[in-house]
Design a protein that fits this description.
The structure is a homodimer.
Chain A lengths: L4 H6 L2 H7 L8 H8 L7 H14 L2 H9 L7 H4 L5 H9 L7 H18 L10 H4 L3 H11 L4 H23 L5 H13 L20 H17 L3 E4 L5 E5 L8 E7 L13 H15 L7 E7 L12 H6 L18 H7 L17 E9 L4 H5 L3 E7 L1 E10 L3 E2 L11 H19 L3 E3 L3 E2 L7 E2 L2 E10 L2 H22 L2 E10 L2 E2 L2 H13 L6 E4 L5 H4 L5 E6 L16 H22 L1
Parallel strand pairs in A: 3-4, 3-5, 5-16, 6-15
Antiparallel strand pairs in A: 1-2, 2-4, 6-14, 6-16, 7-12, 7-13, 8-11, 9-12, 10-12
Helix pairs in contact in A: 2-3, 3-4, 4-11, 5-11, 12-14, 12-22, 14-22, 18-19, 20-22
Keywords (chains A, B): Hydrolase, Lyase, Manganese, Metal-binding, Purine metabolism
Cofactor (chains A, B): Mn(2+)
Subunit structure (chains A, B): Homodimer.
Chain lengths: ~600, ~600
């Protein structure tokens, strides 16, 4: 007997609560309060209502809920006193099947965690599609979270409790995120290919034109054919391009996609999610024998991360004619030139210029990507609409004052280089915050050869500043540089600030951003607009056609470029649904 | 024909100005204005009057004066268009006798310096007693000053101009700082002894019980005998102790002295000045066949710097019974234990406990020491009366936040460990400044493995806080630790702060401090009271008897623990005069 939305919306309160019994461990009050928001438009709507109830609960209530949970593979599991739901979940995650060493390790972690935070460690562990984590990854996550701040850990526990409730809710509705699962599975299967030396470490690393990289291209091209793309090819730089034709030959194309290369020891979703989400949509169109007024060109970009060669965005760059011939002579760590690597892979270097697209043939470019940041995770919102890919600058700097004796130099006679940087750092924090969407960071900071009893005479530091538009970025940079000058003058310091990087912002095309917004709202997901702090392939296409991106929430605090990068099949399903919605909007508009 | 104070005080204004003609390069207005302060009580009085005139002059006047000076070994020297005074000075410093390489180097420095600051480099260079700098050291100082801040360099130029005027003034009065010269010479002669490996580098390093160290003890004991001390011995820890008996056998003793060991690549005056100043006074008493109601015990302490063994203040500690037996088993870098080193030096380890002094036999302890800080140099005041040897604490700390992507983590969702430390650093600066005499320093600071695009998850730093009294220090430390806690709470950070050192303050005994004050004022030197930020042997004696210290100005910004440490024979003479004054006061009091 599975539940339907109609049933739930129609049931009297007590009955409805009974229908949702067990969502939150020993805490029916959450469900009861959320039910007051009926009628629900979608599963996503129910989930968000639940999130809101808990967010508005008193801190003691939240803590009570956290403490109502069993330890991971703890005494309750051993003594079989878990709730039915917990038993099922710990079982599926393989925790009932630990080696004695794993079990001992988890018990120690449980003890340490409880001593530190005063509540049990909670992780939604119901198997790979629930969290993306294997037994080993669960233990790694546990160890990592032990060093978090208590406030963060409390919030993280609540987020995991929601994820557990989401899985339990899906069960009640007999709901399966079918397409989300397929996207999940494609990513899982693709992650078996990893560069030499990394497989042994259980790490995912796929850099440009390695064997693993070429295997990925082969797999993706094969899957594209299976999905019903009309043309599939691996192009002259290694991009996998699948084209699903429009209803009429004269129709333009929508371009979409993302990259399949990874950083070293990276995650499974960075880039790849943006290939498989539209692939799932095209497969559905093909299954329905449906053609749209426009074609769909899905590109799995060969290179975005700049790991093997310093040629970041090579794949998307080639499509706008931005392939630099001098890259061909770059050598990797083993002395292999890019030219040799491309020849070895059978790519036709001479054809690269022909990859350049005629923008007039395209409606625009959209890209789905995992957020790679903490925002959606903290807000418990699965999707975010990108307003702009931030423009950025980087500076490498040094402040110079005068080293002197920390005991004998009075405060008013110092030229402390580090204090000048401290003042600048706090100004940058406040100046960026004032903009809302801007960020400014001093990521590198050190007093070279600092001694405990010497006033710092030098301080080396970096500055990274990003904003959704170039004028906003430039205004911030000008303010920061002016403050740097003012601080140096006032404190009798000198400084060098060398610009090491400058990238233009890529604001989303308003009409394309609006399409994503309409899609998200139609799903019953709260609309959340945000800039992208990181760079993406869409930045390159932005130079020749309108673009807009959709972000998908990352779990574990949004950690990325790390094996703990994670998402859920539920969220991937929502991304597929949103993408399909955009296709339908476009079909109506261009019909 | 030499000038006398009486003559100068009696002369009509124009005549007096003519008597002092040429003190300041092409700038008679300074002398003229200073003469308005007649009658002068002493040479020191005239010098301070000159300093004050220039300090109150308009910035353009100061700059005009600086620009009126010739370049060091510059075109004017080559073309022989220098003033007579300048020719004499550059000649004595050996600058007219440069090698072609040295000459080329100086020309390049002159060009760079002028380009950077817009005025010529000025250094009082009239031979070793003028500055303590050899030709090589002059060039090193030049190169070092090139990187100073323009404000500092302007002040440094003015200070050197005063030093030049002081030397010229001495010439006019036929004045020789005779005892200051002797103190200078003793220090110069002692500095030829340096540990193996450092002589080749031209560096001064004398660590506990090395051959150089034992040679220093031998030289000092020899000089003490020459000066007329009644008993001279090298004691069981290597201190050189000279006793000049009181008029009556029942008389108590005044103890004084400082250390003769050095840091690695140190200066010639740190410690040693405090041995030779009282030695010069005893020699004068002996020459005059004069006995005081009290005896004088001058101790050249064998060890203060803790360089070869971690046993700082070993020499003065032994006199108060604070010699730790476990030190004997400490090994130096070559594996030689302190016990072996002492036996090798022929010291009677068994006698160490007998070094402990009976405080009832002593009036108190005084110590003369070079300031090792910038204060007196900046104020152009030759002597400073120490109010207290500051008490201090040191902490080694780490702030922990959460490392995250500098692009994708909004400002309000960061836990930036470095920003927490930045805030603390600025608070410490302000909190210490609010006390006046306290200092607080973050000398070590780094974001380990920081990346330009990663929000700092960790930041390591040190804290050093010192104050003239323990309650003042403890109040500051409590405020800083409270702020640290508050910052961590507010920013969601965690921290560790480990106490690594805690030393009690040693406030000067009021009656002893007053004796120094009376002496300084009697000399016509402005009275300036200041705490000692660094530790000194007086801290140990403080535990058993009253003590007070006198500081002597250091040149070159007060640089110390460095070969550029410098002073002048004039200032040393003032220290001898002040010491003699204290002896006379005591003689009157105890008569």
């Amino acid at each position: 007997m599975t539940l339907t939305l109609e049933q739930l919306n129609a049931a009297p309160a007590a009955e409805a609560a009974a229908l949702l019994d067990g969502l939150y461990e020993h805490s029916p009050w959450i469900t009861e309060a959320a039910l007051a928001q009926r009628p629900f438009r979608s599963m996503a709507h129910i989930k968000h209502a639940l999130v809101q109830v808990l967010a508005q609960a008193a801190p003691e209530q939240q803590l009570g809920l956290i403490r109502a949970h069993p330890e991971l593979a703890g005494k309750a599991m051993v003594s079989k006193t878990l709730t039915a739901e917990s038993t099922n979940e710990q079982n599926k995650a393989g925790l009932t099947d630990c080696t004695p060493e794993e079990f001992a390790r988890i018990q120690q972690l449980n003890a340490d965690y409880n001593a530190r935070f005063g509540f049990p460690f909670i992780l939604a562990v119901r198997g790979p599609r629930g969290t993306g984590l294997t037994k080993k990854e669960i233990i790694d996550t546990f160890a990592r979270r032990l060093s978090n701040h208590p406030d963060f850990e409390r919030a993280e526990a609540l987020r995991n409790i929601h994820r557990i409730a989401e899985i339990r809710l899906n069960d009640k509705f007999g709901y399966e995120p079918v397409l989300g699962n397929d996207v999940w599975d494609w990513q899982e299967k693709l992650s078996v290919h990893t560069d030499p030396g990394y497989a042994e470490l259980g790490q995912l690393t796929v850099t440009y034109l390695t064997d693993a990289h070429r295997a990925c291209a082969q797999r993706i091209s094969h899957w594209m054919r299976d999905c019903g793309f009309d043309e599939v090819e691996i192009d002259a730089v290694g991009n996998v391009v699948g084209r699903y034709r429009p209803a009429a030959e004269s129709g333009k194309y929508l371009m979409t996609g993302s990259h399949y290369d990874t950083v070293r020891n990276g995650g499974k979703y960075d880039g790849r999610l943006g290939i498989f989400v539209p692939m799932a949509c095209v497969r559905e169109l093909h299954r329905q024998h449906r053609r749209l007024p426009f074609g769909i060109e899905v590109v799995a970009f060969a290179e975005e991360e700049g790991q093997r060669y310093k040629a970041t965005f090579l794949g998307s760059g080639a499509l706008i004619g931005d392939f630099k011939q001098e890259w061909l002579d770059q050598k990797d760590a083993d002395g292999i030139t890019m030219r040799e690597a491309m020849e070895h892979a059978g790519l036709c270097i001479a054809d690269i210029p022909r990859l350049r697209r005629d923008a007039a043939q395209y409606l625009g470019f959209v890209e789905v990507h995992i957020e790679q940041g903490p925002v959606l995770n903290e807000l418990d919102i699965p999707l975010g609409v990108v307003t702009s890919i931030n423009g950025g600058v980087r500076y490498v700097c040094e402040m110079t004052g005068m080293a002197s004796h920390a005991g004998t130099t009075p405060m008013d006679r110092r030229r402390d280089a580090a204090l000048g940087v401290a003042e600048l750092a706090l100004y940058m924090e406040q100046r960026a915050a004032q903009d809302g969407d801007s960020v400014a960071t001093i990521g590198m900071l050190q007093v070279p050869n600092g001694s405990i009893n010497v006033v710092p005479g030098r301080c080396q530091f970096s500055m990274d500043m990003r904003a959704p538009t170039d004028p906003q970025r430039d205004a911030m940079v000008a303010d920061v540089l002016a403050r740097l000058e003012e601080i140096a003058q006032r404190r009798g310091l000198q400084y060098k600030a060398e610009l090491s990087m400058k990238a233009a912002a890529a604001p989303s095309a308003p009409e394309w951003q609006q399409r994503w917004e309409a899609a998200v709202q139609a799903l019953g997901v709260p609309l959340y607009r945000m800039p992208s702090g990181a760079g993406h392939d869409a930045m390159k296409l932005h130079e020749v056609m309108p673009q807009a991106m959709l972000f998908v929430r990352g779990l574990n605090g949004g950690i990325s470029h790390n094996p703990l990068e994670s998402s859920t099949a539920d969220d991937m399903q929502l991304a597929v649904d949103a993408f399909a919605h955009v296709l339908n909007q476009l079909a109506q508009e261009t019909a």
